[in-house]
Write a structure and sequence with these properties.
Length: 330
């Protein structure tokens, strides 16, 4: 049984990776429906939180139905990170996660995200300070190192554990590695199999379906998997992986009626959370992913991108259901 503090995550948990402008409450809700065992908020700027910035504070929203849920924070200043952790704790999440993995240039340039991998002593000091600042568990998500010449994750993992983190997620790339390069799981396996490590170690990177999930689980012995890009438009991936683990067989294709049902639910919750105009605008990025691979879908995609009301979007979704209803297309 995998536990973070007193949080029981089951035998082999599947985690939803925090993704900016993707893993908001409406999308997290549908991922939870299909078996996500632990989810996180979109990553939140520590400076934004302590300034009470509306966008940052809004990201603290979550429902009890999403639990267990963690708030992920990032920043370059230790005092600000401590204050942000205390602020986030008031929202009563199950844990605080520190983002030491974001590779975005504007974040890294300030020494935050994976930029802090250039200063491991500061990374350790910041982690220790956040652990001391709150009463709930603190976890970390990071990468193998800053670049290919500095893959120091085995040592980093021990040092972060020593200052009190209760779980570690490792993305199998460095800050400078592009996504076109396959994730390197060998060092993730070394961390997990290090006899000094006693906290859960989760692997992240290139988990794109049941077969890859099984391979990473069995080959590297991690305690669970975090899934990022592969969940985009595919909240069913958690159910599919668990089905494959249990039966050794792939799940049947997701029926078009199921896709339309979940798209409609996602839309309704997005509008309820953000308001009609913004909810419709921000869910547009999901349409192509939800219907990826459908033949001759372009006219529907254009209509969805141009729709201005929830009723209009629902009408288009019904047209999609009628157009592909007999195809059995996934």
């Amino acid at each position: 049984m995998v536990k973070i503090g007193e949080i029981n995550l089951g035998e082999f948990p599947l985690l939803l990776a925090p993704m900016e402008d993707v893993t908001d409450p409406p999308f997290r809700f549908v991922c939870k429906m299909f078996g996500a065992d632990l989810m996180y908020t979109e990553f939140i700027s520590s400076e934004g939180l302590i300034r009470d910035a509306v966008k940052s504070v809004k990201k603290l929203d979550f429902e009890d139905a999403e639990r267990p849920v963690g708030v992920q924070i990032f920043g370059h200043d230790i005092d600000s990170m401590m204050a942000a952790a205390r602020y986030a704790e008031k929202a009563h999440p199950d844990l605080i996660d520190i983002n030491f993995g974001c590779p975005v240039k504007k974040v890294v340039a300030k020494g935050a995200g994976s930029g802090i991998l250039n200063d491991i002593p500061k990374m350790v000091r910041m982690t220790a300070a956040v652990v001391k600042a709150v009463k709930i568990p603190v976890t970390v998500k990071t990468r193998l190192g800053y670049d290919e010449e500095h893959k120091e994750i085995v040592d980093i993992a021990e040092r972060l554990q020593d200052v009190g983190i209760q779980a570690l997620t490792i993305h199998g790339r460095t800050r400078t590695t592009r996504y076109s390069t396959p994730a390197d799981w060998t060092l993730i396996g070394e961390v997990k199999n290090n006899p000094r490590m006693h906290i859960p170690v989760f692997g992240n990177g290139d988990v794109n379906g049941p077969a890859s999930a099984k391979y990473f689980k069995e080959t590297f012995g991690v305690d669970g998997l975090m899934i990022g890009r592969a969940v985009y438009g595919n909240p069913w991936i958690f159910r599919e992986i668990k089905h494959y683990f249990a039966t050794g067989k792939p799940s049947p294709p997701v029926a078009i009626a199921e896709r339309v049902r979940i798209c409609t639910l996602h839309l309704e919750r997005s509008v309820a959370w953000k308001g009609e105009r913004r909810g419709i605008m921000e869910i547009r990025k999901h349409w192509s992913a939800y219907f990826k691979g459908f033949p001759d879908f372009k006219p529907f995609r254009i209509r969805l991108m141009e729709a201005q009301s929830m009723d209009a979007v629902k009408e288009i979704l019904m047209d999609i259901l009628h157009a592909y209803g007999g195809s059995g297309h996934k």
